[in-house]
Design brief:
This protein is an alpha+beta fold and 326 residues long. The chain has three domains: 55 residues, Winged helix-like DNA-binding domain superfamily/Winged helix DNA-binding domain (Arc Repressor Mutant, subunit A, Orthogonal Bundle); 208 residues, BirA Bifunctional Protein, domain 2, CATH 3.30.930.10; 48 residues, Roll (SH3 type barrels), CATH 2.30.30. It is 33% helix and 28% strand. The protein contains eleven helices and 14 strands. The strands form three sheets. The protein has a seven-stranded mixed sheet, sandwiched between helices. The longest helix is centred in the last third of the chain and has 22 residues. It is globular, with a radius of gyration of 21 Å.
């Protein structure tokens, strides 16, 4: 664990700690403490400094803890215990997991979660904005024996899994937006990104990234270019990210197991029921084309079926941007 992470762990109780005490416990100088505190504030955390009292966070913080996550996993812990990595800082959980599996003998269910993600990615090349130490950034891997075509619709099945996890956590009235967003009150709460690697004949490796907004800080909020919401705003309390991570992991593990045997079919009806824009008119943006149509559902591969003036057309993930028409 880095010095910065050790200091943050001490400050996570939300009470004051003097620079002298922090330095003594870690065996570093007060100047080194100040330097690491500065790095924490630069990462988006609000650390208050009061002369004579020391440093404290603006609110208590629940840090990711591997043992707590495994405890919350229940029976699934037996399958994931040796496949879970908890990281302090990483460029991208998807990229890290992909690189770490190059020599791995066990791939299915391999997972990493990170406190801070420097270059997280969203759909269509967008940056995924997440205040460090306050959100859930998780990736899980699975290898399928067939070619890439076998995983068509997987991100939609994963959306159902994440929605189930959020509902078990206590979030009500959330829904899905094609192809890979979880929404609450028409604002984005979570997103998914599947990186697929494989030859036509297989095997195919899928690295599935999931980001759930636990709490978005003021500065980070200004960088987000679409309506969003976080769990703290919904529930009015600090998020237990260890419990949330365990729920997401458990539901994703089950999703992968079912999808490997039966594909999208077991999730298709539930996805359509949970789609917030089912049978609604939407505006479609595809390259330089812009037209409207009515959502009719999804096909067996997860393509979005739209009825418009020219007839019925199926769109695939990554090809369009969809906006509701009130």
């Amino acid at each position: 664990m880095s010095t910065r992470a050790e200091i943050l762990k001490m400050l996570s109780d939300g009470v004051f700690h003097s620079g002298t005490d922090l330095g003594k416990k870690l065996g570093i100088t007060r100047a080194a403490v100040c330097k690491n505190i500065r790095r924490l504030t630069q990462s988006g955390l609000e650390v208050h400094r009061v002369t004579g009292r020391g440093y404290k966070l603006d609110a208590p913080l629940t840090l990711l803890d591997r043992s707590r996550i495994l405890k919350q996993l229940g029976p699934a812990a037996a399958e994931l215990r040796d496949r879970l990595q908890v990281l302090d800082e990483v460029d991208s959980t998807n990229r890290y997991l992909s690189e770490s599996l190059v020599q791995a003998k066990i791939i299915n269910g391999s997972t990493c979660v990170a406190e801070a993600q420097l270059t997280g990615r969203g759909r269509r090349g967008r940056a995924w904005v997440a205040t460090p130490y306050r959100n859930l950034m998780l990736s899980m891997a699975w290898r399928f024996s067939g070619g890439p075509g076998i995983v068509s619709g997987l991100s939609l099945a994963a959306g159902v899994a994440v929605l189930r996890a959020l509902e078990e956590y206590g979030v009500a009235d959330a829904g899905l937006k094609w192809p890979n967003d979880v929404m609450w009150d028409h604002r984005k709460l979570a997103g998914l990104l599947a990186d697929v690697q494989g030859e036509a004949a297989g095997p195919t490796l899928v690295i599935l990234g999931v980001g759930v907004n636990g709490y978005i800080g003021r500065d980070d909020a200004e960088r987000i270019d679409q309506p969003w919401v976080d769990l703290q705003n919904i529930a009015g309390e600090t998020v237990d990210r260890n419990r949330l991570a365990a729920l997401v992991m458990r539901h994703l593990l089950r999703m992968f197991q079912v999808f490997a045997e039966k594909g999208l079919a077991p999730f298709r009806d539930e996805w359509q029921t949970r789609h917030l824009y089912h049978h609604r008119r939407v505006r479609l943006i595809q390259g330089d084309k812009d037209f409207s149509g009515t959502v009719e559902g999804i096909d067996e591969n997860g393509g979005l079926i739209i009825r418009h003036a020219q007839g019925t057309q199926v769109f695939h993930s990554g090809e369009i941007s969809m906006r509701p028409i009130d």
